Amino acid sequence: MALDLNSGDYKVFRDSFRKFIEAELKPNYDRWEKEGLVPREVWRRCGEMGFLCPWVEEEYGGAGADFGYSVIIIEELARYGTNVMFPLHSDIVVPYIHSYGTPEQKRRWLPGCVSGEIMAAVAMTEPNAGSDLASITTTARREGDFYVINGTKTFISGGHNCGLVIVACKTNPQADPPYTGVSLIVVEEGTPGFIKGRRLEKMGLKSQDTTELFFEDCRVPAGNLLGQENMGFIYLMQKLQQERLVCAIGAQAAAEKMLREAIEYAGSRKVFGKPVSRHQHNTFKIVEMATEVELGRVFIDRLIEDHMEGRNIVKRVSMAKYWITEMANRVAYQCLQLYGGYGYMEEYPISRDYRDIRVQTIYAGSTEVMKLIVAREMGL
After folding, report:
1. 8-118: CATH class
2. Which of 77, 73, 34, 78 is nearest to 55 (CA)?
3. What is the CATH number of domain 121-230?
């Protein structure tokens, strides 16, 4: 039986989260976009309502829910155009602590991640190392009971607000091949030598604080190492399946939102005496978009089911991440065109949607990197 995220307990949860968006996010989102930051109290409120890391076990403050509840949160944020980074925190960063942390580390950090007292980020990208994680140059040198971290990270989502950041660094810079020298170390806010740099000005997703991070002789307890030393690259690869699925789910829901709103607008706006949507060229464009969006929905729903059942979907999720995000960008372009000059005005949501969707083909692995992964999975 196919997974139905619109019935039973799923529907109750979806309705509850929609009310949270309507009451807490939408009235303030324009202001956060201008300020370039979502206040920390919003995260605490989200945690109080049970919308952060719902999959975490009850012993750590979570609800022990399945991934379907995370899917609902990702979809509804996209459908309302409120791109707050709850999914990044809940479904991309915190799983590293849950999967590779020691019992003590999990008791120490997970309850705060669930409550919203701790906002988590992951620092992989560097000024000269993006998708090629094996080329990072940030180092962590062991000195007794501490690691001393030195290096620079950039494009770190949530970097300004984060209470802890998982840092990918080289604990063995001489490792051959290089990826075998990467480790993951948790650095907490306030640690001497951990410096949060400027918030970066971006094309879109302006309310998401994206920051440069600096580590200058940053001394971190050795007990903050996640998992085993020099296994960090493997851990990152193991978690990228869900990260890319999260991106594809958000892009799919955004495409559905843009198309739905464009159809409503094109049906009400008249040009040359008839609705924009009734001109044959526009009608065909809408049908083409609707077809692509429908294909994306069928694909992503199947991947969600397979992921929840524990299947390996690396090849197909890489396909989905590249195809659905590219499709969403095509939809954004064509939808904005249907609005004419009004689509270029900030008062219409399509203007923001058009800017926000662009990065989806870049972060979490660019379209080109996804194609390389698929090719390797195919033995090409």
Report:
1. mainly alpha
2. 73
3. 2.40.110.10
